[in-house]
Amino acid sequence: MFETLSDRLTSVFSSLRSKGRLSDADIDATTREIRIALLEADVALPVVKAFVAQVKERARGSEVSGALNPAQQVVKIVNEELIAILGGETRRLRFAKTPPTVIMLAGLQGAGKTTLAGKLARWLREQGHVPLLVAADLQRPNAVNQLQVMGERAGVVTYAPEPGNGVGDPIEVARQSIEVARQKQHDVVLIDTAGRLGIDQEMMKQAADIRDAVSPDEVLFVVDAMIGQDAVTTAQAFMEGVGFDGVVLTKLDGDARGGAALSVRHITGKPIMFASTGEKLEDFDAFHPDRMASRILD
Ligand code: GDP
What we know:
Elements: H1 3-14, H2 24-40, H3 45-61, H4 70-85, E1 101-106, H5 113-126, E2 131-136, H6 143-154, E3 157-159, H7 170-183, E4 188-193, H8 201-214, E5 218-224, H9 230-241, E6 246-250, H10 259-268, E7 272-276, E8 284-286, H11 289-297
Parallel strand pairs: 1-4, 1-5, 2-3, 2-4, 5-6, 6-7
Antiparallel strand pairs: 7-8
Helix pairs in contact: 1-2, 2-3, 3-4, 4-11, 5-6, 7-8, 9-10
Bound molecules: guanosine-5'-diphosphate.
The site of guanosine-5'-diphosphate has 18 residues, from helix 5.
């Protein structure tokens, strides 16, 4: 994960190690290298600019302290700025005062949404919740079945339209699922919605209609980290078309660069809440900006 960026930053810092004190020219050269490292990592340009400006300002203003040499001081600043750009604190799920808490997943087809639904369901179950998985992705022929398999693996109940009932209405399925959750004492409803390969208005409208029908406590935008800063364009389209409260990054295990992770928070203003790091249900956790930053700088 993020190996390319990690290697690049490590070599930037190692060139500072022999310095006793950093001149403005040293700081300029270092921040130029950091800029290149971030651009190579496919971080969105406005984010790169803001990040580099902040590091430069802080490096220039920093006093030479007894405990840290100049290289360590720059590492410390970069670490703190990485944490900031990744969102600072971990943003936890907000649960409704009166159950069920309704969580809706939105994102492009192939982003890893259905897998994520299973992972999140398992994670919630382990925390003592009783989630209901809801198959409101009726676009893709196999999606309902795939979600049911996920549900079984996660040890949670899946609510889906009866087979043979035609295509079904995803908005109606979502609406009914809330009622089912109340009757059957599920405290969290996790709604998987349809995605398309590309952004289209019909998909956005369907997701917005489901949102209006169930008033979710949390709308999570699920995005494949491997698409780099294209994640930002997709996120912006979902912001406009559906709106969301938090981001879930998937396929971080295959992402050597880190562009999506480092761009999406700054551009959308929405926190990254969860990270998916593999195909197995256990490959999933809450997103911790500080842990991610230290991973990059390891
Ligand atoms: P959906 O169309 O958004 O519902 O996407 P799926 O959940 O069907 O996932 C698409 C593909 O990505 C599947 O082959 C998943 O096994 C795979 N996948 C999902 N999440 C991850 C992940 O975090 N890492 C890796 N390596 N593969 C993943």
